[in-house]
Amino acid sequence: AWMIVLLAFAGCSRGNPQQMIETARFEELQRNTTHAREIYQRLVTDYPDSPQAAEARQRLQALDAEDAETP
Fold first, then answer.
1. Mean pLDDT in the chain?
2. For a Cys staple, 17 with which of 5, 31, 35, 50, CB 3.0–4.6 Å?
3. Phi/psi zone of residue 41: left (φ > 0), alpha (ψ -120 to 50 degrees), beta?
4. Could you give phi then psi for residue 22, rounded to 5 degrees?
């Protein structure tokens, strides 16, 4: 369990786009889409040209589409 906490803590930092994307994915799996969105948005803002930012943009669009479908 401490590894998950460590990963989540590391992913919340602004130092590593790979850790951030992994943490955001984990948050989505845990259905914590609010925190996932925050991490994705921070990734896009802080690392706009990274491959992880491209994935983050796609995930943000997908989450927006899911929200639009939910009554």
1. 84
2. 50
3. alpha
4. -65, -40
- Beta carbons within 10 angstroms of residue 42's beta carbon: 19
Closest CA to 61 of 26, 69, 17, 30: 69
pLDDT of residue 70: 75
Q: Write the CB contacts of 57 (distance below 8 Å, at least 6 apart in sequence).
A: 40, 44
32, 4 Cβ separation under 8 angstroms: no
Nearest Cα residue to 11 out of 28, 26, 29:
26
Q: Specify the pTM.
A: 0.77
Encoded tokens for 5: 């906490």
Residue with tokens 């609010």: 34
Torsion sign across C-alpha atoms 68, 50, 44, 14: positive
